[in-house]
Specification:
heterodimer; A: three-stranded antiparallel sheet; globular; B: mainly beta; seven-stranded mixed sheet; 11 strands
Chain lengths: ~110, ~120
């Protein structure tokens, strides 16, 4: 059971907007720790997508955005494209001195 | 360029130990913390622990306390993760990942390619 909770799957048609939620608690996200998001394409290592709640590393399209409020965070993807089909993970820190990941969300582009 | 290159796949018997290496290049090895993350087949990412390559201090996830040891060799810019008393549930891809505190806060900005560890009798 992951400390951070994500929906197992989301889907959307090309061009649409989808959001992925990440729900934590007062010992991680709610304690003020940053939330980061990773994209994992099939058979590859995860790639940093969003850091510090809402910042994009160089090279990540602005179709990807992140936000945080209270004990939750969200990843939004606009203008959905076929190549966005992947697994997405949120990650934060916890007051137990761990760095937990969410359970992951599989994005299907219809 | 900045990269992490991990050692090759391993097959171990239950009860044995495995030691995976992660060689860093393209940056100052001692300036960035390194984490280990694993992923069982068809499952999500699981954080295992962190090592400070500068002083060698470590912190492990409670689940792995007593079974995992993370070390580093500054002369070769390599970190190691050793997991003992292996069981079938430890079958997974093991990743090293760099934490870039200076730019991305505590996010993991660079990942190794992964090392498949199979535990089977």
């Amino acid at each position: 059971q992951s400390v951070l909770t994500q929906p197992p799957s989301v889907s959307g048609a090309p061009g649409q907007r989808v959001t992925i939620s990440c729900t934590g608690s007062s010992s991680n996200i709610g304690a003020g720790y940053d939330v980061h998001w990773y994209q994992q394409l099939p058979g590859t290592a995860p790639k940093l997508l969003i850091y510090g709640n809402s910042n994009r590393p160089s090279g990540v399209p602005d179709r990807f955005s992140g936000s945080k409020s209270g004990t939750s965070a969200s990843l939004a993807i606009t203008g959905l494209q076929a190549e966005d089909e992947a697994d997405y993970y949120c990650q934060s820190y916890d007051s137990s001195l761990s760095a937990p990941f969410g359970g992951g969300t599989k994005l299907t582009v219809l | 360029q900045v990269q992490l290159v991990q050692s090759g796949a391993e097959v171990k018997k239950p009860g044995a130990s495995v030691k995976v290496s992660c060689k860093a290049s393209g940056y100052t090895f001692t300036s960035y913390y390194m984490h280990w993350v694993r992923q069982a087949p068809g499952q999500g990412l699981e954080w295992m622990g962190i090592i400070n390559p500068s002083g060698g201090s470590t912190s492990y996830a409670q689940k792995f306390q007593g079974r995992v040891t993370m070390t580093r060799d500054t002369s070769t810019s390599t970190v190691y993760m050793e997991l003992s008393s292996l069981r079938s549930e430890d079958t997974a891809v093991y990743y090293c990942a760099r934490e870039d505190s200076s730019v991305t806060g505590d996010a993991f900005d660079i990942w190794g390619q992964g090392t498949m560890v199979t535990v089977s009798s």
